[in-house]
Design the sequence.
């Protein structure tokens, strides 16, 4: 017997859960398959950036997130960088990955996603009209069929391997060891480049010390599993001279500077998000934030695409996010060289430090790392916000606050006499788009803006312009209305 659903998401880490939640907001039936039986206890990522926090705010998730610590100072390759940007969520927000995963798990399942733990995918077959997934669970083989599948199963993606999706880029040349350790007392180290290697040590309020260490010139070899704590102890001593052998490791892992990007984020009816689409060295939390933003870009598009009228919209996922991924991987490669390169990079670090002190350079790097400077290809037009996220307009945000939480697009009307016209134009798409009267705002310029569910402006118009073409482009064929 083959079980039917609309979308199958493989992987229930933060990225898979995010895309499943977005699909549910769009009205799609979703089954999430995860081979782990419990949420991971390893908080590999611990940083959320401004754009991700804006998304969480739009979805009403911040109250449940609590009050994470916020820091304005980040880094670029270990060189201090002020991450101040034009956002209410400027800077770094320190949230353990376990907490992010718990939050998104609760949100997604409350929305009605069917999360199945202990299911291991063993085959994926796209027959052109749908995708059949074979999974093993409770000692039995199960068959499921969906219109689309999303591979959100991480760096070692089973879905990617089964489909033979091609990754291009650079193989690993350097490796770092990482561990969370209790029972040690060592001084903090923030991106220290020492004579023999690179070291980081940061202790959290619970008394757990996060260590990262790399010994210069150490080659990357094949591993059959995670490194031992004894290897971390030995390498830490070689690099810093400190003995941490009396500590106890909560978990240990190794990661490297592999830099690879899927050639295509879409393979037929299968889409890839997060580390399944791009492999990179963790640097300032960019990998997790990149993946979460992949998920928000894709989720609403797949929900629209289920009616079969929006294939161009589905292709836009690759067109938009592949370019962003390529740019982020490039900055991470530069940072990796600055962090882990030998003495030959010191002159480059000094010059870059001087450049970062220039406001234009600082703002450019902060916008890229935080995700607030992303600009997608948009419809022709002169409005400066086209393709960019809607700027933080407090009164407008308050007026339209419920709409993003429901995963709907917003048609903002900034002139009261125009709102009735907009409602008439939007009516065939009213199941996807809400018209909101925002009142006059001199910063806007035009009297109407169409904002996608992920917060990006895709159409701007004045009284003699109709939004019908933009609505069809982004939300498929209109529905008949009485």
Sequence:
């Amino acid at each position: 017997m083959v079980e039917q659903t609309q979308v199958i998401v493989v992987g229930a880490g933060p990225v898979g859960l995010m895309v499943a939640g977005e699909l549910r907001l769009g009205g799609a039936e979703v089954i999430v398959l995860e081979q782990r039986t419990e949420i991971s206890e390893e908080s590999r990522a611990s940083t959320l950036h401004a754009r991700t926090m804006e998304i969480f705010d739009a979805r009403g998730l911040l109250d449940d997130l609590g009050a994470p610590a916020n820091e304005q100072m980040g880094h670029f390759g270990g060189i201090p960088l002020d991450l101040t940007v034009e956002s209410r969520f400027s800077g770094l927000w320190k949230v353990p990955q376990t907490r992010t995963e718990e939050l998104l798990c609760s949100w997604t399942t409350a929305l009605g996603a069917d999360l199945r733990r202990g299911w291991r995918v063993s085959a994926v077959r796209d027959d052109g009209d749908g995708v059949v997934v074979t999974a093993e669970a409770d000692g039995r083989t199960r068959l499921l069929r969906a219109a689309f599948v999303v591979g959100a199963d991480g760096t070692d993606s089973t879905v990617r391997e089964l489909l033979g999706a091609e990754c291009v880029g650079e193989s690993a040349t350097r490796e770092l060891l990482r561990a969370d350790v209790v029972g040690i007392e060592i001084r903090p180290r923030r991106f220290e480049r020492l004579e023999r290697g690179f070291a980081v040590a940061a202790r959290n309020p619970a008394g757990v010390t996060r260590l990262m260490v790399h010994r210069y010139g150490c080659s990357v070899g094949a591993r059959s599993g995670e490194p031992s704590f004894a290897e971390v102890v030995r390498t830490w001593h070689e690099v810093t001279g400190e003995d941490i052998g009396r500590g106890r490791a909560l978990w240990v892992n190794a990661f490297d500077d592999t830099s690879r990007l899927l050639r295509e984020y879409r393979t037929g009816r299968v889409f890839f998000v997060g580390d399944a689409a791009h492999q990179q060295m963790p640097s300032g939390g960019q990998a997790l934030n990149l993946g979460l933003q992949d998920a928000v870009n894709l989720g609403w598009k797949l929900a629209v695409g289920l009616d079969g009228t929006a294939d161009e919209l589905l292709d836009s996922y690759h067109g938009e996010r592949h370019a962003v991924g390529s740019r982020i991987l490039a900055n991470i490669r530069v940072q990796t060289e600055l962090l882990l390169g030998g003495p030959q990079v010191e002159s480059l670090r000094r010059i870059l430090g001087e450049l970062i002190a220039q406001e234009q350079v600082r703002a450019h790097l902060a916008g890229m790392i935080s995700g607030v400077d992303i600009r997608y290809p948009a419809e022709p037009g002169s409005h400066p916000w086209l393709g960019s996220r809607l700027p933080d307009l407090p009164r407008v945000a308050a007026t339209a606050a419920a709409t993003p939480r429901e995963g709907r697009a917003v048609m903002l009307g900034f002139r009261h006499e125009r709102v009735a016209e907009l409602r008439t134009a939007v009516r065939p798409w009213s199941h996807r788009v809400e018209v909101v009267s925002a009142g006059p705002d001199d910063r806007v310029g035009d009297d109407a803006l169409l904002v996608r569910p992920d917060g990006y402006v895709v159409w701007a118009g004045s009284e003699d312009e109709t939004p019908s073409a933009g609505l069809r482009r982004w939300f498929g064929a209109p529905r008949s209305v009485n």
Remarks:
- The chain has three domains: 2-46+96-169+260-340, 175-256, 394-475.
- Residues 413 and 419 are 6 Å apart (CA to CA).
- The chain has a mean pLDDT of 91.
